[in-house]
Each structure stands twice: as C-alpha cells, then as structure tokens.
Design goal:
Helix 3 (about 45-55) crosses helix 10 (about 140-150) and helix 9 packs across helix 10. This protein is about 60% helix and about 0% strand. The protein folds into 2 domains: about 5-35 and about 155-210, Endonuclease Iii, domain 2 (Orthogonal Bundle); about 45-150, Orthogonal Bundle (Endonuclease III, domain 1), CATH 1.10.340.30. The chain is mainly alpha-helical and about 220 residues long. The protein starts with 5 loop residues before the first helix and ends in a 10-residue tail after the last helix. The chain is globular. This is DNA-3-methyladenine glycosylase II. Its EC number is 3.2.2.21. Pfam families: HhH-GPD (PF00730).
Length: about 220
C-alpha cells in the first residue's frame, strides 16, 4: 500500500483548500489525505473487489471476499480457478447471482486479454480504460473508477455516481438533497488535477454526517 509523500499531500491540501472554504475547513479537521493505493494489485483483482463492494457496506463486502479467498485456498482465485468453481460454491460465499455473473465475465475477459494486466493498464489513459471495461457485464463507470483510484493510483478521478461522494458534498454544504452527478462534476472541475483526493475527503465528510450528535448535558 502506498500513500502520498508529505510534499505532495501538502500541495494537494493547498490546492483543494483554495478552491472552496467549506472544503478547506473539512481538510483542516481531517488532516493529511490518507488515500492508499494497492500498488501491486492487478486490474482483474481490483475489479473483483469492486464488484464485491457494489451496493454493500465495506465490512459486508470484505466478509464475502474473505470467504472467496478461503474457497480458493488462501488467495483470491485466478481467472481459471474462479471459472472452475460451481455457482453453488460461489453463492455460499455470499455472492448474488448477478455478482457471480459479473465476476465470471471479468475472469473470461482477463483470459482473453480484454482486462489488461497492470503493466498494460499503466500505458492506458483513464478514458481508455473506462471505454475498454464498461462493456463487461456488471462493470459500470463507478467500478472502473474504483480501479483507477485504488489500484492504479490515478490522481484526477471524481466518481460522481458514488453515493458517499455526493453525500459528502451534501453534508459539507448543508444541502437538503445530494447534488446530481452532472452538477457535482461541474463543481469538481475546480479540484483538478487532484479530484481523487477530493473524493477521499468527501467520503470523510459523509462519515461525519453519520456520526450521532452528542447532546449537551448541563449540570448545576
């Protein structure tokens, strides 16, 4: 896992803080950006993890992945191994039918070269990777964006379809409703070329919004 260097972190925080006062206050409360990148993860593995996380909280997705790893003997199954498992065994890991189909599709696409190796992905732009992968079953733009941010370390990705990112902006700005993806994309242009870090901070804002407000207890 790789994080930001102190100098890069400071530059990112300066840029984002200058773009919006509420974002600046959030950054001041939160401190350094702790976005971490799986520097050695292959796109195939990153896509499997992203599929597991679709529409689930992180702990539930990690539990499913843990059972899948156990089924494969202690490591995430490679494409051939994944395709060899009976559907019933994959359901036993907690995967829905749609997620099983999506993972099997990714495995087949990895074997035929549609899903690139990490070395190949490094040479492709963000847009090229999105165009190449979103045609796979169960793989939408959000799933590819998670690959771009957390596996490939692309610095300027704003996942505007992400519930947590839009909720973070709603909380940060005290809005009644989340912004539409297109509206947030327009707002986020000011955060370029550090939109991945901005997304990380908006996830932190969403977490703040879920914390219970402690009542003040007056004692006399």
């Amino acid at each position: 896992m790789l994080g930001l260097s102190p100098a890069r972190d400071r530059a990112i925080r300066r840029h984002l803080s200058a773009a919006d006062p509420d974002l600046a206050a959030l950054i001041a409360r939160t401190g350094p950006c702790r976005l971490r990148v799986h520097a050695a993860q292959e796109p195939y593995a990153a896509l499997l993890e992203a599929i597991a996380h679709q529409q689930l909280h992180g702990k539930a997705a990690q539990a499913i992945l843990g059972r899948l790893v156990a089924l494969a003997g202690g490591t995430l199954p490679d494409p051939a191994a994944l395709l060899s498992f009976p559907v019933e065994a994959l359901r036993g890991c907690g995967l829905s039918g749609s997620k099983i189909a999506a993972m099997q599709g990714v495995a087949r696409a990895s074997l035929d070269g549609t899903v690139p190796s990490r070395a190949q992905a490094v040479a492709l732009s963000d847009d090229e990777l999105v165009a190449r992968l979103v045609g796979l079953r169960g793989i939408g733009r959000w799933t590819v964006e998670m690959l771009l941010i957390f596996a490939l370390g692309r610095p300027d990705v704003m996942p505007v379809d992400d519930f947590g990112v839009r909720e973070g902006w709603r909380v940060l700005k005290h809005l009644d409703a989340q912004p539409k993806p297109r509206a947030l994309a327009d707002i986020a242009r000011a955060w370029s070329p550090h939109r991945s870090a901005a997304a990380w901070y908006l996830w932190r804002a969403a977490e703040e919004g879920r914390r219970p407000v402690q009542a003040n207890i007056l004692t006399g």
